[in-house]
Write the structure tokens for this entry.
Amino acid sequence: MTTHSPNKTQAWQALESHFEAIRDVHMRTLFERDPQRFQRFTVQFEDMLLDYSKNRVNEETMDLLMGLARTARVPQWREAMFAGEAINATEGRAVLHTALRNRSDRPMTVDGEDVMPGVRAVLARMREFTEQVRSGAWTGHTGQPIRHVVNIGIGGSDLGPLMVCEALRPYGHERLTMHFVSNVDGTHLAETLARVDPQTTLFVIASKTFTTQETLTNAHSARAWLLEHLGDESAIARHFVAVSTNEPQVRDFGIDPRNMFVFWDWVGGRYSLWSAIGLPIALYLGMGRFEELLEGAHAMDEHFRTAPLEQNLPVIMALLGVWYVNFFGAHTQAILPYDQYLHRFPAYLQQGDMESNGKSVDRQGRRVSWHTGPVIWGEPGTNGQHAFYQLIHQGTRLVPCDFIAPCRSHNPLGEHHAILMSNFFAQTEALMCGRTLEEVSAEMRAAGMEEERITELAPHRVFEGNRPSNSLLFERLTPRTLGSLIALYEHRIFVQGVIWNVNSFDQWGVELGKQLARTVLRELRDPDPVEGHDASTNGLINYYKRCSGE
Ligand code: F6P
């Protein structure tokens, strides 16, 4: 596959010239000039509407961005991904999370082998197991049905299942309470164990590698806690299951491989909720609902694979992101779900996006001379409005925002949803339109304010506007819609990675800290002061040793 420096291409240079022409054009003007702007810049996928008309683009911008996608060979890379080619070159792996949710009878192959029979076999095992737990047929060591599920995992082995279980709470099993322990800080586990009963608790130890320090430490402590309460090694088989690619390590830990659910190295950790890593989701929602989630993602995969680039939601969103990062110099991207159930969605996307595209060398290992992934952040509306929106409206930085909301709430309580949505619409409008000095002054004048005071206050009350946002609306947050929404963002990340010519599927950047922590842990066990680091690290470690009494 040919690769490129995107900023050396003609497509990029054409965008640079175009940027000079459009950078100071206000979106208000764009809307005034084009009565069809909403129709022109909206796309629908099933019940999901993407309105990207409140972006600093015109038709020429979109054409040029599409040109950039073609120059970067997005269609060819997309084909390579779906074909199971080893596009994660630094790890020599295919990237085939789309196979996990392939609901068609099309084979999907890695090294010439169809992976679909294996995928279906694991789904069948998940169905069998989750039905037993949910029906109460699977009992704990003392014969009681399971009431608490504690997932122990971190990163992709935590954030996806946690986010989905939270997002789909209305579909949750009433007997089951879900808990997620990720942090190696003992507080996380201790606080969780204080809320559960060992007799009715099932631990899911989720780790692709089964070597992750945080997860194994938590898992060992959970195991010790269970044995302390149930006092019998044979209890492990009724209270511990594992999800991993690493059978020997699972066995070493003491979990019978019959209680293990497998997945494969062609599933990246942050793309793994569709695999057996989704076991907590399937336990909580039931396998039928889990499969609806897969179906929603598959439908988005089909859209991404087959829709023309101009009508393709992930491609459009990816290109808009590139437009702001590389031409407007935006550093961040805000994710603003107007749905309390999606409160972990921004955190989930932080890993998805930042671990994927937080890279500074290209696929050939050369230092890039263009910016790559932005900082992803956000909180649910309307809480964010009372916290950080001030900066988005009036700060000196450009923050592109994704507003996400269902048209119908799972909790239709009085006027709550209308109030919530009125805020959604008002915010996108205010960000786009802003309020001019003349408007602000006229308003104060009408309120009877003196001219001197108006002159003083007006600059503080001016909103420049011209702040871009995407709006994503769908009917209701169902498993299917959520599946599509997650897949939409996964493919947006993929397209951006292709344009930036980075490998979105490795994460070497997390290794150095892990290695150093192992050395420091050995030193913390030793009572003597340390000397081998830089002065700051030595000083901090030695202060800690004195303070903690270690
Ligand atoms: O943070 C690095 C990472 O490798 C993530 O990519 C991954 O999701 C997480 O650690 C957990 O890894 P594992 O599932 O192997 O425990």
About this structure: The CA atoms of residues 161 and 278 lie 6 Å apart. The pocket of 6-O-phosphono-beta-D-fructofuranose is lined by residues 154-157, 207-209, 212, 215, 269-270, 355, 507, 510 (CB under 6 Å). The mean pLDDT is 97. The two ends are 54 Å apart (CA to CA).
